[in-house]
Amino acid sequence: MSLAERVSELDWYHTLELPDGVVTPGHFDTRPAVAHVPLPADLGGLRCLDVGTWDGFWAFEMERRGAASVTAIDLDDAERWDWPLRVRLASTRYGQDFLAAFRRGSAGFDLAHEALASGVERLDLSVYDLDPGQVGTFDVVFLGSLLLHLRDPIAALQAIRSVCHGTLVCSEAVELWPSLLRPRTPSARLAGYDRPWWWQPNVAAFHRMLASAGFAITRRSRPYFIPLGAPHPLPPWRHALRSVFTAEGREGLVIRLAGVPHVAAAAVPFAS
What is the pLDDT of residue 267? Predict the structure, then answer.
């Protein structure tokens, strides 16, 4: 079976460029974010960690940048994901049907790992359980689009701090309109109901989360968008027109047309 055929049998989160011109049909196309995220261009000699790796886009990117070693962590069993209970139990596109599509362990990562002849080490481990006694410490830690899915993002960041003796690079989804209307006031919308996320911060709240967990921000990006991938075609124009009459509809339309708004930051642990 060809690589393209093997790729077509899986449901992908990341859009990955594999050998022989094969591109995985990911739910999100993270490739444009590379230009915005303050990840060092040269990671030579550094030990790196990718938290919430899923199909491994950022882990493979760090390896491509010359990292001495890359460890990637995620939970293989979707039943262990820290998603709102109501979402997990619902028979909706974000509930049992979605979980079933991804209840395949690390199959996507493993196939990409094989195709890229990668040396990345993947561990079945929750961010909450990061422990320097178990995994050691890292020069660079990458965290991408995970905090919104966590009930306790500050606890997750504090666990990351325990294994980070260098730089944390974090790319996270933010709410666009509250960021524009309240640029200096931290605010976050609690979802935790019918979507697979808990907290949706504005940019100021994202920066406050990092500070609250014991990090000092050294670099900040401007807002950028991570486009939706192949499984998310644009809606019919009539549906798009109707959506502008509600706040939720407008938010969804922006995401469909431009992508999910994100910001990124590089931060270092406060001196103890």
Answer: 98
